[in-house]
Design brief:
With about 70 residues, this protein is an alpha+beta fold. The chain is about 25% helix and about 15% strand. Strand 1 and strand 2 form a beta hairpin. It is globular, with a radius of gyration of 13 Å.
Length: about 70
């Protein structure tokens, strides 16, 4: 599950390792502690899935801001 923030600089990051964890957090089934949007990357159970998604999307462990994107031309 990706998070986007367009308030200041546009930002995209992997916030949840999957829809299952997002829905469980939304329903307050899980007790997840978020310091940042990408806090679950260090979670003992979900960290591996988070790192895999961050690598596969090219967003990296901290996400990416609009200023970090390289546009062709």
């Amino acid at each position: 599950m990706l998070v986007t923030d367009i308030d200041d600089l546009s930002y995209v990051a992997v916030m949840y390792p999957g829809l299952d964890v997002y829905l469980a957090d939304l329903a307050d089934v899980l007790d997840l502690d978020f310091d940042t949007h990408t806090s679950l990357i260090d979670h003992p159970e979900y960290g591996a899935r988070m790192r895999e998604h961050a690598e596969n999307t090219g967003l990296g462990p901290d996400g990416i801001e609009f200023q970090d994107l390289s546009w062709p031309g």
